[in-house]
Description:
The chain has 371 residues and is of the alpha/beta class. It has helices at 14-25, 40-49, 63-66, 77-90, 122-133, 153-165, 236-242, 282-285, 312-317, 323-331, 336-345, 349-362, 365-370; strands at 3-8, 30-36, 57-59, 96-100, 137-143, 169-176, 187-194, 246-247, 250-251, 279-281, 288-290, 295-297, 307-309.
Amino acid sequence: xxxxxxxxxxxxxxxxxxxxxxxxxxxxxxxxxxxxxxxxxxxxxxxxxxxxxxxxxxxxxxxxxxxxxxxxxxxxxxxxxxxxxxxxxxxxxxxxxxxxxxxxxxxxxxxxxxxxxxxxxxxxxxxxxxxxxxxxxxxxxxxxxxxxxxxxxxxxxxxxxxxxxxxxxxxxxxxxxxxxxxxxxxxxxxxxxxxxxxxxxxxxxxxxxxxxxxxxxxxxxxxxxxxxxxxxxxxxxxxxxxxxxxxxxxxxxxxxxxxxxxxxxxxxxxxxxxxxxxxxxxxxxxxxxxxxxxxxxxxxxxxxxxxxxxxxxxxxxxxxxxxxxxxxxxxxxxxxxxxxxxxxxxxxxxxxxxxxxxxxxxxxxxxxxxx
Length: 371
């Protein structure tokens, strides 16, 4: 038997890659029964890196599967059952659901026993897939601000739906990528859900953190390419804007050569100021690492005015992806702009690996799945 997953709002497949890596550590086989991703460029990167078998379901816009008739202002239990049956027939059975989804407000109308509080939001699609397929385990990812979004009401609705409407026991953590082997400050909310009520209680505390200084890549410097094209270097004209501390009502200190990267964002291809995006000078890039001090010794033989943005390959490295991932995407014709967007949107693979390792180690989830 295999551990089977469905990749909802898959992006480039960070969850899928993490499951594959962890399953190998436990000497079990994993299989992705299908994925859903609306962005055609992300699908191209995804399919260039995973062997999509003939029986694997590829859904572009999940709303084509979870849609509700537009003339329905209300929907009763019988109609919801029809929806579940339709979804159940369209998506192959699986044990684990992964979903990273944008943060949206819900319309808190009525008594919240119907579907109006989520309809029109992307969480509605997650809700319907869970309702129809009832996987043993779900792992959702979102920005940490979801907890306080709309005064906390958005997160309250999500928790109530998962617990009361869908019957899952849940646990959630805000985890920082830099605590799990990735030299990037990236705090994300992870929501775990178990079909068996006792499973979430078996998890004690967050996944064990890793001292970044003791890892293979304790700083960004360890992940930077040494020789890249001139197109990644800032022109004198744009450098003034990038390095400025803002203007008008926006003021923030712009700094380069951050050894722990700032959070990657989906719009980094636009090159924001150095208070938001990551830029590095040649003296830093060609410097040396002092392990005792855990810092980079600048090499001033190089021109300090030569400053560049990170490359797509580096961006994916900052998220814990192997180099082959980017190489495959390039061969498939994915542009730098699209890869910047994808790297900014994806999950940090090592963080998901730590979550899955903890769940597989401390609960009997695998036993439930494999029987």
